[in-house]
Amino acid sequence: MITHPTSSELIEAVIRFIEERAAPQLKDRDAFLARVAVNALNTVRREIEHGPRAEAEAVARLTAILGHPGDFATLNAELCEGIESGAIDAFDPAVMAHMKASIIDQVRIDQPNYAGLRTLAG
Amino acid sequence: MSDLETALNAIAPQLGGTSITGLRRLSGGASQETWAFSLDTGQALILRRKPQGAVSTTGTANPLATEAAVIKAAAKLGAAVPEVLHVSEPGSDIGEAYVMVAVEGETLGKRIAQGEAFAAVRPQLARQCGEALAKIHAVPLEGLPDLARSSALDELDKYETVYRTLGAKRPILEAAFRHLRDRAPTLDRPVLLHGDFRNGNIMFHPEAGVAAILDWELVHIGDPAEDMGWICTASWRFGGAKPVGGFGDYQDMLDGYEAAGGTPISLDRVLYWQMLGSLKWGVMCEGMYASYANGSDTSVERPMIGRRTSECEIDLMALLEAAR
């Protein structure tokens, strides 16, 4: 198994290359897209670091709510269909707690500086 | 001389001059071109033009002639809008477009919500936005061009259809659709709506405040609280701490609305439309990801906008918690 360099280290190296070598040679829309590309890589890095834990915790919460095991995609789809049909009450405390914990994890990966994260997560 | 410059020179007398100078394309505006130029008299003007062969991505954008007619009607009621000098039809030398007088000010949301230049005027902006909306909502519907009419349920239907078509599985969006459907207000008092009234589409002057309401592309008829909820939608606060555009308080906006003759609107109704605003923008961000996923737009920007759906979801989560 590959132990090093880690995926995070490879992403870091690419970010540094874009920021220090490539971006200074770009202008206008390409310079803007280079910044977006760096943001995308930072998102991937955070997802590699926190995604597996966040998903495992989500699966555990969903298993408790739905009363049976499964993979994330299946359980999440079942929750969505339950809310849509009314079979599951989104305002049930366990459902609310699950949605809240999941979205806090997701925004910590996607946009950790977003003001709404501080509003909800404190 | 470019074709556009030639065509604009030909109409210079109708604009109040004899020739034009300094024609340049301004950045921004994905669905419309914006050009700046001057008359030989020194008068600064703006051309808003539909790109050649453009196909609307939302399907809800109005023809520019409709936009111009509504701006003129709002001007009659004293709303802060740019003066429209000339409307040009599709197929003409200029193309589908209108020319307006340039207004001085700032539209960058972050500067308005947080910049030092706006520190002094900022406390007045929410009230002024309320006053501006009261004037827009008072425009008589008779005599306006044909406009779409949309209730809260119509809006929910429209965006839920988009969401279901995209095939995303997002529990918070599901919860928000259901919550908002159960509480949808009826369209008991339909008024003219700006349709995209938010920080970023309003020109603010650092001393005078509201200088001109811009971007009338999504004008339609609906619930007056829709325009208020949209400017309060968290996605348009640009890091500012306050709910109205990041710069002001709900009550100041509502007070300004009433003081300018608007029929009083409850904060609850504004919060309803604010939640619908976050839901709508969340679905639109998903849609921008879809245009990457299906290969129609391959830039890195699109999928990253798709990642912003979670911002809307966290705002919706806070609103759902408060509504529990």
Tell me what the structure shows:
The complex is a heterodimer of chains A (122) and B (324). The radius of gyration of chain A is 19 Å and the shape is elongated. Chain A has helices at residues 7-22, 28-66, 72-85, 93-110, 115-121. With 122 residues, chain A is mainly α. Chain A has five helices and no strands. Chain B has 324 residues and is of the alpha+beta class. In chain B, the strands form three sheets. A five-stranded antiparallel sheet of chain B has the order 1-2-3-5-4. In chain B, strands 6-10-7 form a three-stranded mixed sheet. In chain B, helix 5 packs parallel to helix 9 (267-293), helix 6 packs antiparallel against helix 9 (267-293) and helix 7 crosses helix 9 (267-293). Chain B starts with a helix and ends with a helix. The interface between A and B is medium-sized, with 35 and 30 residues.
Tags for this model:
heterodimer; A: 122 residues; mainly alpha; B: 324 residues; alpha+beta; 5-stranded antiparallel beta sheet; 3-stranded mixed beta sheet
Task: Explain the layout of strands and helices.
The complex is a heterodimer of chains A (122) and B (324).
Chain A: H1 7-22, H2 28-66, H3 72-85, H4 93-110, H5 115-121
Helix pairs in contact in A: 1-2, 2-3, 2-4
Chain B: H1 3-15, E1 20-26, E2 33-39, E3 44-49, H2 64-76, E4 84-88, E5 97-101, H3 109-114, H4 122-137, E6 149-150, H5 152-166, H6 171-182, E7 191-193, E8 202-205, E9 209-213, E10 220-222, H7 224-232, H8 250-259, H9 267-293, H10 301-306, H11 309-323
Parallel strand pairs in B: 6-10
Antiparallel strand pairs in B: 1-2, 2-3, 3-5, 4-5, 7-10, 8-9
Proportion in β-strands of chain B: 5-15%
Return Rg of chain B in Å. Answer: 20 Å
Radius of gyration of chain A: 19 Å
Strand order of the largest sheet of chain B: 1-2-3-5-4
Helix content of chain B: 40-55%
Overall shape of chain A: it is elongated
Strand segment count of chain B = 10
Give the biggest sheet of chain A.
none
In the predicted model, the low-confidence regions of chain B spanning at least 5 consecutive residues are: none
Record field, number of beta strands of chain A: 0
Distance between the termini of chain A: 39 Å
Tally of helical segments of chain A? 5
Distance between the termini of chain B: 63 Å
Figure out the total of helices of chain B.
Answer: 11
| Shape descriptor of chain B | globular
Please summarize the sheet with the most strands of chain B: 5 strands, antiparallel
Order of helical and strand elements of chain B: HEEEHEEHHEHHEEEEHHHHH
Q: pLDDT average of chain B, as an integer?
A: 93
